[in-house]
Amino acid sequence: MKIFSAAQLHKADEATTKKHNITQLELMEHAGTQIFNWLHQRMQGAQVPIHIFCGIGNNGGDGLVVGRKLMEAGYNVEMYVANFTDKRSKCFLINYDRVKSSTKKWPKLMMSAEDFPEINPEDILIDALFGIGLNRPPEGWVKKLIQYLNEQKSFKLSIDIPSGLYPDQALEDAEAVIKANHTLTFQSPKLAFFLPETGKFVPYYEVIDIGLDAEYLQKTESIAQLISKQEVQQFYKQREKFSHKGMYGHALIVAGSYGKIGASVLSARAALRSGAGLVTAFVPECGYEVLQASIPEVMVLTDTEDDLITDISYDFEPSVIGVGPGIGTKKETVTALKKLFSETKVPFVIDADALNCIAENESVMKVLPKNSILTPHPGELKRLIGDWTDDYDKLEKTKKFSEEKEVIVLIKGAHSIAVVGKQLYINNTGNPGMATGGSGDVLTGMITGLVAQGYDALLATLFGTYLHGRAGNMVAETKGFEALIASDIIEYIGDAYLDLFAQPEQEPQQQ
Length: 511
Ligand SMILES: NC(=O)C1=CN([C@@H]2O[C@H](COP(=O)(O)OP(=O)(O)OC[C@H]3O[C@@H](n4cnc5c(N)ncnc54)[C@H](O)[C@@H]3O)[C@@H](O)[C@H]2O)[C@H](O)CC1
Ligand SMILES: [K+]
Known about the structure:
By secondary structure, the protein is α/β, with parallel strands linked by helices. The protein has 19 helices and 18 strands. Helices cover 41% and strands 15% of the residues.
């Protein structure tokens, strides 16, 4: 799904009204009606008090449409207008009058903190203060209003975006944002929903299709893409009946050091479970028995050194090399990596300590193979690209790094983001239970296993990240977040594949 900027959405709005000969007011009525329908379906007429807080722009206008519709349907509604300026939008004003004509009551005007209403914990709050037109942080009593609403225990539903957040630029005042329980967002999720500094204000959201012109949206290049099941279904390559293991590649996993052989076990097993035809693990001598005993399907090659990797040699042509988990950053290992990168012409998946070796040694950075897939967590990324001021600065610096080095960078996190030059692909699976040791080693193995099977670098990155998160979600469904460990993710890779094309369970037929 495409993620558009505020400017693009405003333009889409204009294009839609022109092309379909409808007014902005009709678009607002349609958007507000959909929010009303969403609430009505869930509330079924319940007389829970609903407080709607409207700004004076079009987001406020949406709030007024919702309020009017709810009142017409007999709900217990109170509407407030935070009158922070007199520059009310045209559609706001028309809907303001419509509220009066339909309900015989004006919304309550709020001019200062003295006008804040009393709210009970079981009441519902609807936030229609600011939408994507926010152009500066809320200040004075409006900021206090946001804080006052945040103090309430009531369920908070934000329209389009939690007020105080910019859809696609850095947050300036984290104390002036509505902490929404749920957000109903128009047409496209906003980039801010997926970044750590701003995403925490958007724990749940749903996209409401308000009918912006499909052709315009299709031809507009978005600022990012959200990768969900619908997208990855198209990536999947079905196995052929008359195929053999040679057709699914031979992955080499270079991983482990004394005390961290588990990293190589996790990566190698994950590569196998993802479908690689053959997997060889290259480990220090001390890892030999561990690997042979724990994964009989994996072939093992060892370094001459017992404790660490010092010279990576092998006697076959790997289709891909996954390198880094648990290898440490000792100088012998750095030398081995430099040699590997300069002498080998196969696709690479580079993770963990291999990234640290690159960041700490200019001479390794210089031989970083083009088209490699790098999978840093934020700490590793910082070592590679330097510090950033905010999430957007982080994305810009990563884009620059990706362009200069001609590599794919997967920034791991709650929503892992693949950066390929200027393009951003945001993963939509995973859960906080996956923030656990070894989870990254599994991902490295999975992406390596997909490249081995012939998926190109970008598809392998996106598909692997999706399946990893989906498998993690399936683990969490049975074990919860806390008990989830990295090995569990591997055990659910198969279920994650099956789930790609699973049919929803049928409701039992009534006799
Ligand atoms: N995308 C669409 O096609 C549709 C969007 N709808 C809704 O419209 C809003 C965007 O409306 P807009 O009028 O552009 O902006 P806001 O409602 O967010 O209002 C901004 C308003 O407030 C002023 N302002 C901005 N920041 C501050 C501040 N910190 N303090 C005080 N005042 C501020 C600004 O100058 C404006 O006057 C979108 O989110 C949707 O909810 C449609 O209704 C359907 C179509
Ligand atoms: K809002």
